[in-house]
Design goal:
Layout (H helix, E strand, L loop, with lengths): L3 E4 L7 H11 L6 E4 L11 E6 L7 H20 L7 E5 L5 E6 L1
Parallel strand pairs: 1-2, 3-4
Antiparallel strand pairs: 1-3, 4-5
Helix pairs in contact: 1-2
């Protein structure tokens, strides 16, 4: 069962970026997949949104690994000369922020 969905961003993430992001975040959950964009960019940068599909609390391993995974995502975009996300947020099914990393 998919545990995490990574939101696409039509203006920021192409197919190669999504493949890289899924690989960089893949160790955080048993199964991770791309999802349709639900959120819009805000002034001051964009946020990479990840959706937690379980009703269970976020596992401690996911919380502990989130900062380094977020930095790896930032590095990916920076190395390609693209604007990196200003943050990474994990949302529950109701779009409530469960965890967030500012970059």
């Amino acid at each position: 069962m998919t545990e995490l969905l990574v939101e696409t961003n039509r203006t920021r993430i192409d197919g190669e970026d999504m493949t890289a992001v899924l690989g960089l975040l893949g160790h955080l959950a048993g199964r991770i997949e791309p999802a349709q964009q639900r959120s819009e960019d805000e002034d001051g940068g964009w946020t990479l949104f990840v959706h937690w599909l379980s009703d269970e609390p976020l596992p401690q391993a996911l919380l502990a690994g989130l900062p380094s995974a977020a930095l790896s995502v930032r590095r990916h975009f920076t190395e390609l000369g693209k604007e990196p996300p200003a943050g990474l947020s994990v949302l529950d099914r109701d779009e409530t922020v469960l965890a967030s990393v500012a970059l």
